[in-house]
Specification:
Number of domains: 1
Number of strands: 0
Helix content: 40-55%
Largest sheet: none
Structural class: mainly alpha
Radius of gyration: 22 Å
């Protein structure tokens, strides 16, 4: 009986440099992990300085705080990095629970809309 490899159970092949040709694709992160990563990003010193420089003390207040907007952008970047428009960010936020939104900095229980997010960016 000769030893032959099963055609469906092939072993990783190697390139001349010795690196495997297979690409490692990690398991997708859970919602809790994505929220924690977005929150860690917004708690970084660089983001705090950016928010402090951009926060106004006079004029019309934002409907959504800039810190929450930064958290929303980070959350969307971790969840769906291929699209970067405000409508897609709002769509990502609508999939989250109220407790996840509170962790990201959305204190109001009002529905997150495109208009509110745009106000948080432009005000």
């Amino acid at each position: 009986m000769s030893r032959t490899r099963h055609p469906t159970r092939s072993f990783p092949t190697r390139t001349p440099s010795g690196v495997s040709e297979y690409v490692y694709i990690p398991n997708p992160m859970t919602t809790t992990q994505r929220v924690a990563r977005a929150r860690a990003f917004t708690d970084s010193e660089v983001v705090r300085q950016l928010v402090a420089q951009r926060t106004r003390t006079n004029g019309r207040p934002r409907k959504i705080s800039l810190h929450a907007v930064m958290a929303a952008l980070a959350m969307h970047g971790v969840s769906r990095p291929g699209t970067a428009c405000i409508a897609a960010v709002v769509e990502t936020l609508r999939t989250l629970s109220a407790s996840d939104l509170a962790v990201l900095g959305f204190r109001s229980q009002k529905q997150i809309t495109y208009r509110r997010m745009l106000s948080g960016i432009h005000a």
